[in-house]
């Protein structure tokens, strides 16, 4: 997925540590608020995605930019955000950079606030047409690519 000319596949490096209870502790160097665990590596990574999305919601609520992922170390596992969540992160970050509030975006799109709230909800299944319109209202264009 691309915004402008920047490749923005969001693959967050993950740290898995086997703890004393024989469960895997999951942390993210780039998003320290995302912490979880799992009984095995697969469950830990699945729970990691949920923890990452929950942390992203916290960033949205606090009106803070979501940090972009660092480059994983050789052999380090990553958790990939779904394409729609990536789009929502990019939208929220662009709004913060431009100083555009949710109410401003609602006016620009001629929609009610709950519709903007859903655009910025990582767990809501927004339509890409609505996401494209939001980016256009910010003077940006959303392009999707398959690699």
From TrEMBL:
Domain HicB-like antitoxin of toxin-antitoxin system: 12-75
Pfam families: HicB_lk_antitox (PF15919)
SUPFAM superfamilies in alphabetical order: TTHA1013/TTHA0281-like (SSF143100)
Top-level division of the source organism's lineage: Bacteria
Name of this protein: Antitoxin HicB
Organism the protein comes from: Caballeronia concitans
